[in-house]
Amino acid sequence: MSGIGTGYDLSVSTFSPDGRVFQTEYAQKAVDSSGTVVGLRCKDGVVLGAEKLIISKMLVENSNRRTFPVDRHAGVAVAGLAADGRAVVDRAQSEAQQYKGFYGHRIPGHVLAERLASYVHVFNLYWYVRPMGVTSLLGVYDEEGPALYAVDPAGTVHRYYGTAVGKGRQAARNEIEKLRPGELTVREGVRAVAQILHRVHDEEKPFEAELAWVCEESGRTFQRVPQELVDEAERLAKEALEAEDMDD
Amino acid sequence: MVDPSALAAGGGTRKHTQYPYVTGTSVLGITYKDGILLASDTLGAYGSTKRYKSFQRLTKVNNCTVLGAGGELSDYQYIVRLLEELADDDFCMDDGHHMKPAEVFSYLTRVIYNRRNKMDPLWNSLVVGGWYAGKPFLGSIGMIGTHFTDNTVATGFGNHLARPILREKHRPDMSEEEARALLRECLTVCYYRDKNSINRFQIARVSAEGVDLGEPFALPTNWDHALFRDPAAHAVGTW
Questions:
Q1: What is the CATH class of A36-54+65-247?
Q2: Yes or no, beta carbons of A69 and B91 under 8 Å apart
């Protein structure tokens, strides 16, 4: 997959002879080995879902949050190092608050995404810091409509109809490509996300699915998907998987 | 450390807010059995001119609190912005916490009082109304920071015109209909007797179901009194 960057991988301010920044690539590995996070931009909103692996039976349910509101109309789901994720979310909340204080208007999605990308990028420039080991999926509903962005550890930002990051991203992205997210309603999107998370999840270990959305139904406010919808979506997902197993 | 904004060119005292410009008049507030009602008209007056006739002087702060204001309306808009920022912070914290009416009341009292101490007051009379934990909350804050809570409050002219009526007819266990009728009676008197008022009102309700900022409405009035028809009849030397 990647070469050993002997000597060129000690500092993020060093390029390798073949033009790679190894520290950034290593940061990307932190994201790639974390729980899967999926985002879908549906016709009436954005749905974000995170696969939260339960590391201990003593963990209080719903306590380890992976989705965070950034402002009323936007929220972030993070994959990778949770503490780095918090730093990114804090910055996003600051940017949104400062923008609103200055312009009197809620921060547009593309402005927030680019500001977040610039911030994450800064940590790839200087030797005395390390890159953020997170990819943030940003769901926004502003005047242009719903939008989904992903900011990776390098500070690159892209806008997506649907994407996935983390351990199960390959399988998840295959599933997403079979869908047409722009034609789904968020309710259908919730079911699709739940199904994808259950499908790509390694059956041995227990996990919690955390879903959040910003859509017409939520009044264009970022919130956790109501528990009944999540429970129903998970139930349908498990049934679908069992049905497939029985067919095999 | 001297506050630079207190230094004026020429070493004289710096003048801060001396008088209000665009003002709102009375705000009324009463409790009833299942909640509270706040009422005001929708006028932003510029001295004697009835300049802004659909100015909303009641604001929803969150699902359990409403704020009503009289006095300088730009200061009221600033206060609303402060509260919105606080509410947005609470929202982003995402821990289920939201400001209770008593907390909003405390916070605003301190803001108002501190500005007064800087001799640069926010020129407002505020009413904070809310419903929390099955109990109503109704508080009044003056521009110098005087504050209290009660079952009925009124600001400005409402103090003189509405409170006598409320003292006589208000009961904390009124139904919503009775409470609305009582407020309409008070609003009518305020409209008749307060020069700086218009016949366009709003009533906000806070109850267990949350906040309902009602649609503006007008009240029936009667100007058909004998003396109004011929005002000069009994005047000696009118001008």
A1: alpha beta
A2: yes
